[in-house]
Amino acid sequence: MNKISTPFDLASNGDPAAFAEPLHVGRPNVGDRRKLMARIEGILDRNWLSNHGPLVQEFEAKLAAYLGVKHCIPICNGTVALELAIRALDLKGEVILPAFTFVATAHSLQWQGITPIFADIDPATHNLDPAAVERMITPRTTGIIGVHVWGRPCAIEALQAVADQHGLPLMFDAAHAFGCSHGGRMIGNFGRCEVFSFHATKFFNTFEGGAIATNDDELAAKIRLMKNFGFKGFDNVVYLGVNGKMTEVCAAMGLTGLESLNEFMAVNRRNYEAYRQGLAGIPGLRLIEYSPTEPCNRQYIVAEVDERAYGRSRDAAIQMLHAENVLARKYFWPGCHRMEPYRTLYPEAGRNLPRTEEVAARVIVLPTGKAVDVATISIICGMLVPAHGACAQPGPGRKSSCGSTS
Ligand code: T4K
Question: Would you call 385 exposed, middle or buried from its count of C-beta atoms within 10 A (0-12, 13-18, 19+)?
Answer without folding.
Answer: middle
